[in-house]
Amino acid sequence: MAITLGFESYAVLPFFLMFVAIYLSGYFVIFRNWSPKIRPESSSCLISFFHGTPAALLASAAILSDPNRGFAAANTSFQKLVLDYSIAYFLTDLLHYLVFSPTDVLFIAHHLATLFVIATCRHVVSHGAFSVLFLLLLAEVTSACQNAWTLAGLRRKEDPLAAKVYDALSPPFYALYSVVRGFAGPYFVYEMVVFYASGRGDGLVPRDRTRKLQEKIR
C-alpha cells in the first residue's frame, strides 16, 4: 500500500514544536521551584493537559463532522489534522520517557505502539480514523482529572493543599477511569473486532492493525 505524502503530511511539525515548547516551559519556568525529581513528570503532565481534553473535543468534532463515518471509512482532512496533533504529543512524551525514564519499558512500548497505530492510519492506510479517534476520545476523556490528580499526588507530601486536592479527586477519578477503561473501551473494541473479523474492512484496513488497536486500549 502506497504512502501518500504531501504538504499536509508535515502538519505534525508545528504541533510537535508546540508541545516541546510547552514541556520546556513547564520544566524551566512553571515548575522551576519544584523538586528536580518531579519536574520531568510534572512537565509531562503539563503537555498532557494541552493534549488530552483538546484531543477528546477535536476527536468528537472530527467524528461527528463526517457523514460517512464508520470503521473502514476514508479519513477526512479534519480527522488527519487531529491525528497529527496526537502524533506530535506522543512523540514529545516519548522523548520525555527516553531522556528521563529510559527504564520505563511499559510506557515506552505503549507510546511506540500508539504512534504505530496513529501514524499508519494517518499516512499509510488512510482509512479507519473513526476507530482510532473514538479510542483516543475514550482514552483522553479522563485526562484532565488524571493530570490534576497526578500533579497533586506529586506535591501532596510538601503541600497540604495539594494533599487535599489529591484526596478530593481520587474517588471521582477512580470511578470515571474504571467506567471508561473497564466497560466503554472494551465494548467499543469488541464492536470493532466483530466488524473487522467479518471481513468488511478487508482491502482498506489491515487486520494486524486491528490487533494493535486491541493492545492499545488495554
UniProtKB/TrEMBL annotation:
Q: Which UniProt keywords apply?
A: Membrane, Transmembrane, Transmembrane helix
Its primary localisation, in coarse terms, equals: membrane
Q: Which residues cross the membrane?
A: 12-31, 43-64, 94-118, 130-152, 172-190
Q: Where in the cell is it found?
A: Membrane
Asked if Translocase is a keyword of the record, the answer is no
Under the heading SMART domains, the entry gives:
TLC (SM00724)
Q: How does it sit in the membrane?
A: Multi-pass membrane protein
InterPro entries attached here? At5g14285-like, TLC-dom
Q: Which domain of life is it from?
A: Eukaryota
What positions does the domain TLC occupy?
Answer: 37-218
Among the Pfam families in the record, one is TRAM_LAG1_CLN8
Q: Which PANTHER family match?
A: GLABROUS1 ENHANCER-BINDING PROTEIN-LIKE 2
**What is the recorded name of this protein?**
TLC domain-containing protein
